[in-house]
Write a structure and sequence with these properties.
Elements (H helix, E strand, L loop, with lengths): L1 E8 L2 E8 L9 E6 L9 H13 L3 E6 L14 H17 L5 E7 L1 H13 L6 E4 L5 H6 L4 H8 L4 E4 L3 E4 L1 H8 L15 E6 L7 H11 L2 E5 L9 H16 L3
Parallel strand pairs: 3-4, 3-5, 5-6, 6-9, 9-10
Antiparallel strand pairs: 1-2, 2-4, 7-8
């Protein structure tokens, strides 16, 4: 089953989507699923994870939400701190309003980067964390295809447009915020035992070497899925990645 709801607090309205078995308040274990830049909460990867996870573990539920300026969100200007504030509000809601005994994080691409950044800002509220192709160098990812003309617009204080179903304004201010908040230079060893990172051997944004170096530096368990690209477009490879995540979350500590 699924339902949409909003968290209205502190001047924000976070648009959420909740997958659960029968009763939304009977999930002891809640997974917060976050996605990549330009996506939305109604995405196939989260839906597929929720379907397979809940069918195997009835006590689990999965919650996802729209990042600022994504999906049905009402904001029109991206500010990095507001991404983290949305994340914090959803995490608090899982514990305080839904009564979750354990909270898990599943982050993909931008969502993986923000999960890592969340850990550095707020500590670790998660029982276990699974990151698929986290955007370890998100600033480079978002600026690699900016043209000279677009840089001129940014330098003049104008926005450039990115996105798919929803067009998203990207400002130089937001890019500067990302540049000033790297995660690859942070120490995650305190969180390593709770973390699994999945890489794709043909990822065009976050290479296997980047993920391997990051994981070995922080003693984080990682798995490389051969022939998988960044979005895991091959359904069989996505199924395999989801099976790894479900097994990882099923090993409760």
């Amino acid at each position: 089953m699924e339902k949409k709801f909003d968290i209205n607090k502190e001047g924000y309205s976070v648009r959420c989507l909740y997958y659960y078995d029968k009763d939304p308040r009977h999930a002891d274990d809640l997974v917060i699923s976050t996605y990549g830049f330009g996506g939305k909460k109604e995405n196939h990867a989260t839906e597929k994870l929720a379907d397979k996870l809940i069918s195997k573990h009835k006590e689990f539920g999965v919650i996802t939400f729209d990042w600022p300026c994504h999906g049905e969100d009402a904001r029109n200007r991206m500010i990095l701190d507001e991404f983290l504030e949305y994340y914090r509000m959803v995490t608090d809601y899982c514990r305080q309003e839904l009564g979750a005994k354990r909270i898990y994080a599943y982050g993909t691409s931008l969502g993986g980067y923000l999960t890592l950044l969340y850990l550095t800002r707020f500590g670790n509220p998660f029982t276990r964390i699974a990151l698929r192709v986290p955007a370890l160098n998100i600033y480079s990812n978002l600026t690699s295809d900016i043209t000279d003309e677009e840089w001129k617009k940014l330098d003049k204080g104008k926005d450039i447009i990115r996105g798919y179903t929803r067009k998203i304004k990207v400002s130089e201010e937001f890019l500067d915020q990302l540049k000033a908040a790297p995660v690859t230079d942070k120490d995650f060893m305190d969180f390593a035992d709770q973390m699994l990172i999945i890489a794709g051997s043909k990822d065009q944004y976050t290479s296997v070497d980047q993920i391997r170096d990051f994981c070995e530096k922080n003693v984080i368990e990682y798995q490389v899925v051969e022939n998988a690209d960044h979005p895991f477009t091959d359904p069989s490879l996505m199924d395999y990645a989801i099976s790894l995540i479900i097994d990882w979350f099923g090993e409760k500590e």
